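Title: Comparing notes on inverse folding

I've been comparing how different people in this forum approach sequence design from structure. To keep things fair, I'm posting one structure and asking everyone to reply with a full sequence. Here's the target:
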């Protein structure tokens, strides 16, 4: 009887210890996930925007982009929403299905800011008092596009195991 009672006691202690370890592990994991989520909120967030203009319209697209859209992006950078805005164009040509004319890379301050549905209409009205011309030119900028895509970018750590 004594052996059975001791075994039950040790079994109870083992279950208690296992439960305590699981709870502690869960709390550590939860704290780590919270810390990682908080850190991720503060990490820069990169989106690449690819534009493919209809043949013969790349220069017109660039002119309209620089006139009407880039100043708004610069203003958002001044406001602290974005850290950097750059544009690139391919040095050589590609096949038609893989062709793009301009890649705009925006580094946002964080993923939260990149996805906060910021309404730039007040900025646009302030920056472009002639809204009729602005809207007409922006419509034209999109009319001459063959395609446009937005690609959020995630860095890959090549040294990680």
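Reply #1:
Here's my take.
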């Amino acid at each position: 009887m004594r052996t059975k009672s001791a075994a039950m006691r040790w079994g109870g202690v083992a279950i208690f210890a296992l439960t305590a370890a699981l709870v502690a592990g869960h709390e550590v994991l939860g704290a780590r996930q919270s810390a990682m989520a908080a850190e991720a909120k503060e990490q820069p967030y990169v989106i690449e925007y690819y534009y493919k203009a209809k043949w013969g319209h790349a220069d017109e697209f660039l002119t309209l982009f620089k006139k009407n859209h880039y100043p708004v992006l610069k203003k958002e950078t001044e406001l602290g929403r974005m850290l950097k805005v750059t544009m690139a164009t391919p040095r050589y040509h590609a096949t038609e299905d893989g062709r793009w004319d301009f890649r705009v890379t925006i580094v946002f301050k964080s993923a939260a800011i990149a996805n906060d549905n910021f309404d730039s209409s007040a900025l646009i009205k302030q920056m472009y008092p002639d809204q009729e011309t602005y809207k007409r030119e922006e419509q034209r900028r999109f009319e001459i596009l063959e395609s446009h895509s937005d690609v959020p970018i995630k860095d890959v750590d090549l040294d990680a195991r």
